Amino acid sequence: MATLPHVEANLILNWIRWGLQLRNDRELSEALGVKPPVISKLRRKKIPMGPSLWVRIMDLTDTRLRDIPSLAQHFSDCSTRPAKKRSQKRRSNRKPREPHA
């Protein structure tokens, strides 16, 4: 009997979202056939990824169980996600205040 691989759930879930071109976790939960709070709990490590979820992932991605962790890790290493922009101060069109005399 195969043992379930220990891997970061976020990597797996992000890899599936990317591969299926899903926009958010709600669409991911619909694709996996689970409720949205389950995805949230998986991401926050409140619950482990159970065997039934692994089977759904295998069916959905058409990938063998032993290949999923390495593919997800490779995705996280090579992903070309844009870097987050630092928040910039808003510039207003108003004239600067004159100092009080």
Describe the secondary-structure layout.
Blueprint lengths: L8 H12 L4 H8 L3 H8 L7 H11 L6 H11 L23
Helix pairs in contact: 1-5, 2-3
| CATH superfamily (homologous) name of the domain at 9-78 | lambda repressor-like DNA-binding domains
Average pLDDT, all residues: 80
**Total beta strands:** 0
How much is the radius of gyration in Å? 21 Å
Question: Share of helix among residues?
Answer: 40-55%
Unreliable spans: none
CATH fold description of the domain at 9-78: 434 Repressor (Amino-terminal Domain)
The outline comes out as elongated
- Helix-and-strand structural type: mainly alpha
**Largest sheet data:** none
Task: Measure the end-to-end span.
Answer: 83 Å
According to CATH, what is the class of the domain at 9-78? Mainly Alpha
Question: Beta-strand level of the residues, as a percent range?
Answer: under 5%
Number of distinct helices: 5
Q: Please trace the helix and strand order, writing H or E for each element.
A: HHHHH
CATH architecture of the domain at 9-78: Orthogonal Bundle
Summarize the structure.
This protein has 101 residues and is mainly alpha-helical.
What does this entry look like structurally?
The chain has helices spanning 9-20, 25-32, 36-43, 51-61, 68-78. The chain contains 5 helices and no strands. The termini are far apart. The chain is elongated, with a radius of gyration of 21 Å. The protein has a domain at 9-78: lambda repressor-like DNA-binding domains (434 Repressor (Amino-terminal Domain)). The protein is mainly α and 101 residues long. Helix content is 50%, strand content 0%.
